[in-house]
Every structure is written in C-alpha cells, then in structure tokens.
Amino acid sequence: MASATIEMHGVRRLYQQADLTDTIALDGIDLTIEPGTFVSIIGPSGCGKSTLLRLISGQEPTDAGRITVCGLTPTEAAEAKAFGFVPQSPALLPWLSVLGNVTLPHKVNRRHDRGLPDLEGMLREVGLGESIHKLPAELSGGMKQRTAIVRAFGLRPDVLLLDEPFGALDEFTREALQEQLLQLWEQTRATVVFVTHSIAEAVRLSDRVVVMAPRPGRVTDVIDIDLPRPRHQEVITSPEFHAFELTLRERLRDAFSGSGLQR
C-alpha cells in the first residue's frame, strides 16, 4: 500500500438537529499527518475529536473538503484493511478468551501482504502471558485495554486510530499502558492518531500534538514534540518535558477562550 500519509483539506462535517437546523461539528480542517508518526489530538469536549477519527476511518462522510489515507479515500482505505481501531471501551467478545479476541479479527480481515504476527508473543510483551486463556469477565480494566491494543496491532494496520483508550483507567495503569503502547508502536511504526484529554499523555506519546477548539470544531495549533525516544522516566521528569506541558496548556487555554467557553 502507498505511504500511510493522512491528508485533510477544507474538511467540514454537519449534523442535522431535531428541529432541522444544522450544527457544524467540524469546519475548515487542514491537516497533514506524516507516515509513521504518532499524532495526538487534544481539545475541550465537543470540539470534534472523535468525529475526526470517524471521518478518517470512513465511518462517516465529509460534507465538504477532502480526506485521503494512504493515497485512497477513507472508504477505499477501510476496504483495503488499512485501519486498526481502539475505542474508549475495549468491546471484547465475552465468550472468547483473550487469545480468541485478538486472533478473531486477524482471521476475518487477514492482510495477505503481511505475515502472520506472533499474537501470543505480543500478549506476553504487554503482561498478559498468564491470562491468554481467561475470559474478559476475569480481567481488570487495564488488562482489557491491553487486549484491545494487541487486537488492533495484530492486524498490522497502516493507520492506528485510538479514541481515548486510557481515559477510564487509574494513573499508574494508564502510565504502564502508555509505555506498552509505545513499545508496540516502535515495532510496527504505524501512523497513529490518538485522541486524549490529558496534556501529559499527549506530550509523552506524540511526535506532534494537534490542538482543537469547538464551535465549530477546528484546528488552532499543531505543536511538534521534540523530545528523545524512548520516553522513560528521566525524559518525563525533565524540564524540557514540563516546558512542552506548559506550552500545550497555554494553547488549550487560548482554544477555550477563543470559543467562549468558561473554565
């Protein structure tokens, strides 16, 4: 498949309300996401972050503008099995084991241009080696999200979309999963688009952070995170890391004030 670049030009998305008036969810989105980069999208609730993921993946159409993924339309890219997706809820099948959940999508959507991944090995890498045969009801929230992440990476997608996958987890579990996500990403170098509300998470994970504002949803800033990888504790506690946090906080404050929202 062509290079996993995501291009958005003049993208607009409207939703019709019950009274037949239109609400502009996104407007004037111009954004390029380079292949193999980890890009986070951050902004206040209601700014269209999740909507943008649905447009990229072809789950919803644009009302104006153009999106290409790997040189294809989103629908064509989806048909070519270019996407992996990790939602806020892991959405595991309750009657299948951990291994069954991560292998099922690969059996259904196998990429014939890719070899069979070592899914058991990937599960061991994220600390699920002793839970391979457990059912989802036997897992903690963090273990379920680990399973969902391996399931997505198991398809070896060109583009991985993650919609606040760690939002419901405690801080320590969240940090552990961030580390494991980065380790898997380093192996595959998929193009990643990651939605988050956490400033620290965006800085730790990303090559670039896209800041959005609402009413209508739009991009107000794109910040390059020039920090060395891997981003272990010494990087996270460095002055440079905190400087990026402060910069991102200021840009988010501007996004809030520019949209008329109160903090």
TrEMBL record:
SUPFAM superfamilies: P-loop containing nucleoside triphosphate hydrolases (SSF52540). Keywords: ATP-binding, Nucleotide-binding, Transport. It holds the Pfam family ABC_tran. This is Nitrate ABC transporter ATPase. CDD domains: ABC_NrtD_SsuB_transporters. PANTHER family: ABC TRANSPORTER ATP-BINDING PROTEIN, TAURINE IMPORT ATP-BINDING PROTEIN-RELATED. Signal peptide: none annotated. It comes from Nocardioides luteus. Residues 6-239 form the ABC transporter domain. The keyword Kinase does not apply. The lineage of its organism: Bacteria, Bacillati, Actinomycetota, Actinomycetes, Propionibacteriales.
